[in-house]
Specification:
single chain; mainly beta; eleven-stranded mixed β-barrel; 11 strands; globular
């Protein structure tokens, strides 16, 4: 169904397509994401993550996000509890088309639960965030549901379909914060190393933004 040439062709689109769309005054952006997990022992793991988000392909930073944390996996290997820290630098445009930098420090607690239905892999993530944004403090809950399905059933195949939906709930006066929905195609480079190329829509209630995502997963 798919071949390596097809995958790398899609990969090139991450860098080519946004430039074409910018010329047409599009709001399409690009996120480059690295997510890693390193086993310390059979139960404990070190989480590390970097996201470089742009309004276009490169050179117009929207947000730089760095996360790290210490996780503990239960003996059944289907649940992981993690305590983490995140540093976020955002550069948002104001009404005068000027960029305003904003720094945020974030502490978060999360639970990840995995399940499998035949060939379909599902993951649930429940996350609480304590956000220190300049002089403000905010409290937020997030629920993330992702799914992964191999393209060829019953035989070894390195390509798979991937999708997720994540809802953000403010625990203050504004209940709904945002919702993200994503769909893409992934390729297993080797054991523990995956690449994904996908499309994400982020809905804020009165507005939305579209992003192309290039994601690398590393689990060692």
């Amino acid at each position: 169904m798919f071949c390596k040439q097809t995958f790398w062709g899609l990969l090139i689109c991450v860098f080519v397509t946004p430039n074409l769309l910018i010329a047409q005054q599009s709001d399409l952006g690009n996120w480059l994401i690295y997510i890693g997990s390193k086993k310390i022992n059979p139960n404990w793991n070190w989480h590390h993550e970097i996201q470089y988000r742009n309004y276009n392909t490169f050179g117009d930073l929207e947000q730089l996000l760095i996360r790290t944390g210490l996780g503990y996996t239960l003996s059944n290997k289907n649940q992981n509890f993690l305590l983490g820290y995140g540093y976020i630098l955002s550069e948002n445009y104001n009404e005068l088309d000027e960029k305003i930098p904003l720094k945020e420090h974030r502490i978060f607690q999360q639970i990840i639960s995995k399940q499998r239905i035949n060939y379909l892999k599902l993951g649930h993530r429940f996350r609480l965030e304590q956000r220190f944004i300049e002089s403000e403090f905010k409290f937020r809950f997030r629920y993330f549901l992702n799914a992964r399905l191999p393209l060829k059933i019953g035989r070894e195949n390195k390509f798979y379909l991937s999708g997720y939906n994540e809802v953000f709930i403010s625990l203050e006066e504004d209940f709904f914060d945002r919702n993200r929905i994503y769909g893409g195609i992934g390729y297993k480079l080797s054991e523990g190393i995956n690449l994904e190329l996908g499309y994400l829509n982020q809905f804020f209630g009165s507005s939305s933004r579209d992003q192309l995502n290039l994601i690398m997963f590393l689990n060692l």
